[in-house]
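ok so for the tutorial part 2 we go from a plain amino acid sequence to predicted C-alpha cells. step 1 is just haveing the sequence, like this:
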Amino acid sequence: MTMATAGGPYRVPKRHGGTRAFALALAMHCVLFAFLWVGIRWNNDPTGVDAEIWDVTTQMAAPKMQEPEPEPEPEPEPVRPPPVAPPPPPEVVKPLPKEPDIALQKKKEKEKKEAEEKQKIAEQKKKLDDEKKRLAEQEKKDKAEQDKAKKQAELKEKEKLAKARAAELQRITGQAAAGSTGTAAKSTAPRLDDGYKAAIVTRIRSFLNYPGDEDVGAVYTITQLPSGEVMGVRRVKSSGVPAYDAAIESAIRNASPLPKRKDGTVDREITATFKLKEMRQ
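step 2 — the prediction. this is what the C-alpha cells look like for a chain of 281 residues:
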C-alpha cells in the first residue's frame, strides 16, 4: 500500500475534530462493503479482489525493510556405505534316508545293473548270431561258386574228350580206309611188347589205393588217345570183390595219360589182367 509522506505532493490537513473523521471513515467502509457485495453477487467469480484504502487523515510510517535471511548452507551429502554382498544361501542338508529307503535304493540299483548286463549279453549274442549267419551265407555262396566252376570244368573236360574221340574215330576210319591198300597193317596193329605193357601196369599200380590182401584179379580193357589220355575203361572180368574192381578202375583213370612206347606211339586198346598180389610187388 502506498503511503503519503510528509514531503510528498499531498499534505495531511490538521485534525479539527474526531467525529468528522470517524464519519468519513465509516462512509468509506460502507461504500467498500457495498461495492464488494455487489461485485460478488454480479460476477459470482470466486477470484478475490484486492483494494487499497487510502486514509488521508492518518500518516503511517513505512515498514522497515527486512534484511534477507541468509540461505542455509547445503547439508553435506551423506556418505553411502559400500554395497554389502548378500550372504550365501544356507546349504540345504538333505536328510539321510531311512534304513528301508536305503535297502530299497540298493535293490533298485542291483536290478538296474542286472538288466544292463542282460542287455549286453543279448546284444553280444545277437552279434554272434548275425556273424554266424553271414559266414554261413558266404560259405553257401562260395560252395555254389565252387560247384559251378567244377561243373564247368567237367563240361570242358567232356567236350575235350568228345573232340578227342571224334578225332580218334576219324583217324581210325581213315586208317581202315587206307588198310585196303595193304599199307596200314604195320601202323595200326603193332606187336604188343612186354616192356610197354609192364610200364602201363606199373603206372596204374602207383595210383591203386586198396587196403585188402585177397588173392583176386580183374581184367580191364583200356581205350586211349594217341596222347596217352584214357578215353574209356571197360571191365572184361570182375575180381569178385566190388571194392577191388572200383579201386582198379579209379587207378586206371587217375593214371591218365599212360606211358608211350619209345617211338612215341601207343595202342588204342590195351587189355590187361590186374592181380592184387602182382600189384602189391
